[in-house]
Amino acid sequence: MGGKDEPPPYPGGDPHPRPQAATLAAESPVYAPAVSDEYDPDVADAFLAEAAPESAGLAEHALPLFSVVSSNGARSLANIEPGQKAAKPLLPSYIRDHRQRLRERFLNGGPDAMPEYELLEMLLFGALPRIDVKPLARRLLDTFGDLASVITASETALRRVEGVGDSVVVMLKLADAIAARLARARVLDRPVISSWQALLDYCHTAMSHREREHFRVLFLDRKNRLIADEELGRGTVDHVPVYPREVLKRALELAASALILVHNHPSGDPEPSPADIAMTEQIALAGRVLGIAVHDHLIIGRSKETSFRARGLLPG
Questions:
Q1: Has this prediction a pTM greater than 0.90?
Q2: Separation CA 145–CA 101 (nearest Å)
Q3: Which among 39, 99, 101, 117 is least surrounded, fewest beta carbons within 10 Å?
Q4: For position 88, what pLDDT does the model report?
Q5: Bridge-based pairing state of the strands 214-220 and 258-264
C-alpha cells in the first residue's frame, strides 16, 4: 500500500496499549471531564463532587498529570512526555476575583466591614485554596449558627458537615486555639481586679460555646495575679464532676493564695444550680482552713455570665 511504512507490531501485541479517551470516559466518571478539548475546572470539580465527595476540589490538582498549555494559552489534553513541565492550574477567574475583593475589603475596612460568612470564607481560603468556599461557609453557619460556634465546634460535629475534611478541621481549630491564647495573654501575670473585663472576655472565649460542661480553676498569687489556668474537669451537657480535694491539692502545689472557679453551661443560661452552690461552698470552706481564698465562681453562659460574689452566693 502507498504512504509511509507502518512500524512492525509488537510480538504478541502492544505491551502498553493506550485506551481511547471515549473508552476511559465510559469506564471512569472521574475521567469524564477530561474528554473535552479544553479543561474546565468547574465541570471537573462538579464531577468529582458527585462521584467522590471527598475529592471535591481536587480536579485542578490532578490536571498536570494529563494537561498542557498550548501556545495560545488554552489548556488542552495531551500525554505529558518525560521531562516535560506541566502547566500550573489556575483558579477560575470568578473565584480569584472574589477572593481579591474580600482581601481588599478586609484591608481597607477591617473585620467590622464584613459579615461573618465572608470572614469565614477568608479563613477557609487557606484550607481549600482551589475551590469556591462560599457554599461550605454557608453550610457551616447554617449548621452552627454563628462564627464563634463554628470555630469552637468539636471535630466530630464539624466532620458531619458536607465538605469538611482534615484541612478545614485543622484551620478552624487553629483559629480557636489562637483566639483563646490571645485572650489568655491579656490576663496572665496581671492583677485580675484591674483586668476583670479582660478576664471575663477570656472565659467567654475559652468556654461559652463548648458543647459540654468544663470546669476550670484560675490560680492567683498574693497580689491576685493569675499564675495558672487549668481545666480540672470535663463532663456532659449538664454536669461536670468536681473534686474539692483535687482543686485544693493543686492550689497547694502551685503555692496559690486564691482561686477563681469557672465553669460553663452549654444551655447558654448561667443560672447556678443547687449543686453548683453546694460545690462552691465545699471548696471555699475547705480552702479557708488552708489559707486559700475563693474570690469568685463564674458560670459562663452563651452571652452573659453569673458571678457568685456579685450574687452574694459565696460563704460569709
A1: no
A2: 25
A3: 101
A4: 53
A5: antiparallel
